[in-house]
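User: My collaborator sent over this chain with a note saying "see what the structure looks like." That's all I know about it. Can you take a look?
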Amino acid sequence: EMCFTIMEIYLDVRYMVLHEEHRSGQQDYLYHQQDENLTFPKHTHYSYEIVFCLEGELLCEVEEKRYLLHKGDGLLIFPGSIHSYKTEQYSRSYLCIFSVDWVSSFYDRTKLCSFSNPLFHVAEEGNLALLRDESKSRYTKMSVLYRLCGLVYEQSTVSLVDASYFALTNSLSLLIQENFTKNITLKELAREMGYDYTYLSGFFNKTFGMDFSSYVNQYRIHYACQLLKNSRDSITEIALQSGFSTIRNFNRVFKEMMGMTPREYRITVL
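Assistant: Without extra context I'll predict from the sequence alone. Here is the result:
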């Protein structure tokens, strides 16, 4: 089991969107970022994701399978797949997240399918650069994405995944994304979703690699970091906006995850 700290996430990664409300289910969405020493814990969303190693080594885990990417290696991650990233020493990587309508016919044919070999290798980065080129048309970019999907399709054995597992992981993710600033508990979600609490707790811990409270607090602390950086609201106001009921609990969780107080973080990023 790979272990991560929030300090690694925010200090090693230039910026990574943890919240999915900006892309899950959104049409015509194409997002890019480049990172050094990408490290990010288990998560899922409704979009496709391509990660490509530009330099060094990047360890990726997808549905409990591990892939060590070197320069020129890429990985196609399918909607609904639980995945994570970790850099042991050094990596420079390119990340592209795109909504399913960019490859709609491929998605319609392969949704709820698992691919035995989602890896690909690109000797030249020219095609990937087309995805970031604003002067290129949607059709040019679609051709690049379809080509990568085609590579993975042709080299893989395709099998159906457990639809109930897919639905449950994505339902949990969406509920957390929409409600993390509220006082939500797993017991309440289990009751609303019609699941036994003990079963859902065990499923969550195994699937996401942490307990429910820790996972929700990741969202809250990430949101708080953005507010600390981009707003002039007081730390008490930010604590409440982020879903914490008391400033004391906010300060405690923030320091545990970030290795510094909210006030120290604000000074660091400003």
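A starting point for your reply to your collaborator: The chain has eleven helices and eleven strands.
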